[in-house]
Each structure stands twice: as structure tokens, then as C-alpha cells.
């Protein structure tokens, strides 16, 4: 597989190249990129409110390295999309099952020096207060040498609100509490990282005004 200096495979470069003008239109601002190592096992942990989050993060990190994401398996239901996801090195996960095979793959790739991206909420928040899933902690336990980096995204929910221009910020940072602590459980670690992320990335509802109103109604009534 052909890669460029930052280690990006050609399908990954194509997707990022297509997304760059959208992110420029979205006035994307990136901070803390120096926190993301250019090589070596890295666990990248982010908040998740919009389908545009992984795109924004990939564009922001493109000059440093490729991110291999744990992504929902339904993205592989379309043959072309699935082939692209596989070529980009992403790992399918299913809701409501153990995903032992996906975790095994992620651990193996981490040990080989990959950058694995994961959203501890497991899905878009849709404005809801979701609990953190322990997967990120299990990865940190299995590969303690992996550098943990957090990435906080704000404003991505506004990309679809054309003609209004969004203002996206992508912030990379090292967790204030540091790596996984001795005696800290996988669940506690996941909770800690998510709390840090959400401290400055309030949960946002995606979509245009009517869609947002629909989700607000659901959240209030739930």
C-alpha cells in the first residue's frame, strides 16, 4: 500500500483531500497538534457529537499520521464504503456485542505502532449524557506503552447548516490525569477521559434547525 511521508495510505489521502476544502470553509482551527506523536503506539480518544468529527480530526492530523478508527460495522454494509474503510485500516465494531475480535485487532495494531482512534461514548451523543464504554481502558491496559492523547472537537454539528458557516475547533491534548494509573480500572479510566473531554466540549445536537428540534424533543422527553 503506497503511503506518503506522514504514513497516509492512498485511500486515506483521497478522503482527506476531498474533506480539506469543507474544513477550510468550516473555518477549522487546530491546536495542540504537537501532543500527537508522529510515530509509535498511540491511543487517540475523542468526544463524538457529529459524523464530521472523525473527518475533522483526520484532516487536522494529516501532516502527522494516519488514524485507524474503531468504527461502527454498519459502515461496511455498502461494498464500496466497506472496501475504503478496510483499505484505510479502520476496524469494525458492532453495538451490543463483546467485539473481542475487534479489540484483539486494535491491540495487535497498537503494539505494531499504529494510532488507534476511539470515541468512548461509542456513538454520537445527540445531546444525551452517555456513559463512557470501557474499551478505551482495556486498550490502555493491554498496551501500557501506548501514548494516550485526547482530541476535543467543537462546532462540527454545524457543517450541515448551509449557508451558515460553522466554526470548528479541534484540540489535541494530553490528559491532565495522565496515563492509566496503577489500580485504576478500565471503566474508571474511560470515565476520567470522557469527563475531561466534555469539560470543554458540551454535548451538541447535530443537524439543521428542524432536525435539532426533533432531537431536543427526544432528549427532554427521555
Specify the number of helices. 7
- In the sheet with the most strands, the strands line up as 1-7-6-2-5-3-4
Uncertain runs = none
Task: Give a quick account of the main beta sheet: strands, pairing sense, barrel closure.
Answer: 7 strands, mixed
Sequence of secondary-structure elements: HEEHEHEHEHEEHH
Summarize the entry for a quick read:
The protein is an alpha/beta fold. 36% of the residues lie in helices and 15% in strands. It is globular, with a radius of gyration of 17 Å.
Write up what this structure looks like.
The protein is an alpha/beta fold and 222 residues long. It has seven helices and seven strands, in the order αββαβαβαβαββαα. The chain has helices at residues 10-25, 53-61, 79-87, 100-111, 135-142, 186-199, 209-221, and strands at residues 29-31, 42-46, 68-72, 91-93, 115-118, 147-154, 169-173. Strands 1-7-6-2-5-3-4 form a seven-stranded mixed beta sheet, sandwiched between helices. Strand 3 (68-72), helix 3 (79-87) and strand 4 (91-93) form a beta-alpha-beta unit. Helix 4 (100-111) crosses helix 5 and helix 5 packs across helix 6 (186-199). It is globular, with a radius of gyration of 17 Å. The relative contact order is 0.19. The mean pLDDT is 89.
Amino acid at each position: 500500500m503506497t503511503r506518503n511521508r506522514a504514513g497516509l495510505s492512498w485511500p486515506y489521502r483521497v478522503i482527506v483531500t476531498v474533506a480539506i476544502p469543507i474544513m477550510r470553509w468550516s473555518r477549522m482551527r487546530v491546536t495542540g497538534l504537537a501532543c500527537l506523536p508522529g510515530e509509535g503506539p498511540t491511543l487517540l480518544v475523542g468526544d463524538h457529537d457529529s459524523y464530521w468529527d472523525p473527518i475533522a480530526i483526520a484532516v487536522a492530523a494529516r501532516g502527522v499520521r494516519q488514524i485507524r478508527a474503531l468504527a461502527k460495522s454498519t459502515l461496511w454494509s455498502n461494498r464500496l464504503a466497506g472496501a475504503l474503510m478496510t483499505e484505510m485500516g479502520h476496524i469494525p465494531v458492532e453495538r451490543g456485542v463483546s467485539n473481542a475480535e475487534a479489540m484483539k485487532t486494535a491491540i495487535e495494531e497498537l503494539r505494531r505502532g499504529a494510532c488507534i482512534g476511539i470515541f468512548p461514548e461509542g456513538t454520537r451523543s445527540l445531546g444525551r449524557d452517555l456513559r463512557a464504554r470501557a474499551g478505551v481502558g482495556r486498550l490502555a491496559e493491554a498496551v501500557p506503552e501506548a501514548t494516550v492523547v485526547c482530541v476535543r472537537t467543537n462546532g462540527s454539528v454545524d457543517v450541515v447548516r448551509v449557508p451558515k458557516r460553522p466554526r470548528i475547533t479541534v484540540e489535541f491534548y494530553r490528559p491532565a490525569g495522565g496515563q492509566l494509573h496503577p489500580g485504576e480500572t478500565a471503566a474508571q479510566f474511560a470515565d476520567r477521559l470522557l469527563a475531561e473531554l466534555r469539560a470543554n466540549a458540551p454535548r451538541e445536537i447535530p443537524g439543521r434547525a428542524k432536525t435539532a428540534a426533533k432531537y431536543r424533543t427526544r432528549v427532554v422527553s427521555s
